Amino acid sequence: xxxxxxxxxxxxxxxxxxxxxxxxxxxxxxxxxxxxxxxxxxxxxxxxxxxxxxxxxxxxxxxxxxxxxxxxxxxxxxxxxxxxxxxxxxxxxxxxxxxxxxxxxxxxxxxxxxxxxxxxxxxxxxxxxxxxxxxxxxxxxxxxxxxxxxxxxxxxxxxxxxxxxxxxxxxxxxxxxxxxxxxxxxxxxxxxxxxxxxxxxxxxxxxxxxxxxxxxxxxxxxxxxxxxxxxxxxxxxxxxxxxxxxxxxxxxxxxxxxxxxxxxxxxxxxxxxxxxxxxxxxxxxxxxxxxxxxxxxxxxxxxxxxxxxxxxxxxxxxxxxxxxxxxxxxxxxxxxx
Length: 337
Known about the structure:
The structure is a single chain. The chain is of the alpha/beta class. Helices cover 50% and strands 18% of the residues. A five-stranded parallel beta sheet has the order 2-1-3-4-5, sandwiched between helices. It has a five-stranded mixed beta sheet with strand order 7-8-6-11-12, sandwiched between helices.
């Protein structure tokens, strides 16, 4: 992958930089002269390195803005001093003062460009180019460290949000994802539902066969559930033998159909633990759909589904209870009376 460089400066400024920077096989270079366009580009697709032409309007403003962006602090910003009026009066005291000011304003490095009238001095130009390339190396090292850190964080996050037994998402993942799904559903005016399901008589499995068999049963159940979910469904191990499934873009009536299908899929075929043990399992399920009055974190939605789950267990297990189911039963009672 090419190293991404954003040049906040003119094409002429880019031409004054070492030829290696324009090597398309190594660097992907984009030139922008407008501050708003540069900020938008950095926010959407952050570059590895930013090269800033000091004589360009808003160069200092861009450095200051970048310094204030905590999530973009890893981007290496090099400010190139090319203003003729400053180059002409340069001395070591002035050099130190200007460098100090540039670093305070947000630049990671400050490089004085060789004036055009002295570019025929090959030794000075060569030394200047070596300095530029050395600073690019520093910037690339910083960008690579950031990538490595983000990759490590992604791995740690994956472990933190995964249930170690079933490899499903865990409760912490649910607490992160459900509010996000609720906000998305409300923003797009789409329906959202969820299912809470629980293994019937799971304690009896542990008491009869031991906890290792119980753990294996949960693994097999998780796999069967996962293999029979739709692409928009997300499953979580909520705790113990209890699972939650978020049903994106799904109405209450559709959620009831999904829950009934999962109930049938679990109960219709026994779970083979090993050569000696095969266990018949049923599950009870409760569903709930997002309402206007539900809180943003989904607590009330989960509580409603959990109450329906308890009703399913109290009325015989191996069944689905939801508001749609209860409304349907109430309608049948009115008709029959």
